[in-house]
Amino acid sequence: MLLHVADSPAQAAHDAAAFVADMARLGVADRGHFTLAVSGGSSPWAMFGVLRGLDVPWDRLHLFQIDERIAPAGHADRNLTGLRETLLDHVSIPPAHVHPMPVEAADLDRACGAYQRALEMACGTTPAVLDLVHLGLGDDGHTASWPPGDPVSTVIDADVALSAPYQGRRRMTLTVPAVNRSRQILWLVTGATKAGVVRRMRSGDPTVPASLVRRTPTVALFTDADALRAEETEPS
Predict the structure, then answer these.
(1) d(Cα 102, Cα 214) in Å, to the nearest integer?
(2) What is the CATH number of the domain that holds 141?
(3) Is the residue at 134 inside a domain?
(4) Rounded CA gap, 191 and 34, in Å?
(5) Per the domain annotation, does 230 fall within a domain?
(6) Which of 87, 89, 103, 219 could pair with 48 in a Cys bridge, judged by C-beta atoms 3.0 to 4.6 Å apart?
(7) Which strands sit side by side in the sheet containing 132-135, from one edge to the other?
(8) Which residue segment(s) compose the domain that 75 sits in?
(9) Cα dist from 228 to 14, 187, 232, whole Å
């Protein structure tokens, strides 16, 4: 795993945004399009705020969600709500290239299948191979919507699945195979409160769902200096 250490969370978000923009330009030059899946949470909003001002080939980019809460359209709990406010309302991405998770559907199981087919169509591969996946890390070790102990993290026969209720809501999420099949993975994790779980994730602790994500040179972790120092000095 490649480690990028910044002096502050804001700088880490800036560096991560620059990485996304670079990968998008390279992907379009190489394949004519770029598929990006993004996570929710407060850290990504800072990254998206920077990304919208960078040189990104938005007309060739397809944007997917890593996960989404089962909640009404426009609800504050929805990742899509923050994504629109911080990024989508400010860039010239074609509406048809934005792929929200269909969490308002009456039949959520069928909706998972439909989202998998949308991934395959945009990627041009079956199974889908996303160009870049962006992940965050929860204090309890979850990433995407793979809560500790939830069977969703063991799904291997689908790229999109539903979690059990977690923090008050069920969620739709990309599965472990869909994430690990991607060409590149970007983690953005900042703050000393994440230090312990970052250490466990990087060491492959099997009790941490985030450790299910592959750890190779095509995976980059963007973090801040305080979080890294805290990680290194934490008692074993």
Answers:
(1) 27
(2) 3.40.50.1360
(3) yes
(4) 30
(5) no
(6) 87
(7) 2-6, 219-224, 184-188, 132-135, 34-38, 61-65, 98-99
(8) 2-221
(9) 17, 14, 6
